[in-house]
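agent: user wants the full assembly modeled, not chains individually. Plan: 1) parse entity lines 2) check alphabet per entity 3) run joint structure prediction 4) return tokens. Steps 1-2 passed, two entities, 222 residues total. Proceeding.
--- entities ---
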Amino acid sequence: NAGVTQTPKFQVLKTGQSMTLQCAQDMNHNSMYWYRQDPGMGLRLIYYSASEGTTDKGEVPNGYNVSRLNKREFSLRLESAAPSQTSVYFCASTGGANYGYTFGSGTRLTVV
Amino acid sequence: KNEVEQSPQNLTAQEGEFITINCSYSVGISALHWLQQHPGGGIVSLFMLSSGKKKHGRLIATINIQEKHSSLHITASHPRDSAVYICAVPSGGSNYKLTFGKGTLLTVNP
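--- prediction returned ---
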């Protein structure tokens, strides 16, 4: 099925560990996004890639890095996880400003 | 940055009732998005609209660009409509980024 595939679905890390969240879309979308969702905060943008070859910071980029590997894939890396990064992470993509967004199923990350 | 306010924050209804969720934003936009998130679930795009009204099944979304206001209506509500409904608009100055409301938690009781 066409859509956004996000892995893993669940992850528990110890403080200081690193990990990479993977995201791939098969809709030929130009723009891809990483959000985090925390209770009472709504979705907040971490990083985005408007098109292949570009990445930009969102509202809450500290502690994260991203790579737009190709048009399909956009990964999010936590180099040294902190408890404040405990959250649900969503990847999303869109064909552009006049198109809807498609979201991945989310990654529930706990940092202990 | 575009500020987005949703109301109410929480809404409880009986099956069959007509539901209205409101969204206001501060900066003029090209389009507004309504999203649905079931408890513990993923996020699904319901509507993207730039003017007037759109309808999909029992869901209707309207927007008034001049008033900077949108509403999401659910007719003949059903327990499966229980979810968080989120409004999102382009962030001021960028069509590449969205600003999200905090969501409205709808519970429909049988």
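agent: reporting back. Chain A is about 0% helix and 55% strand. Residues 18 and 79 of chain A are 5 Å apart (CA to CA).
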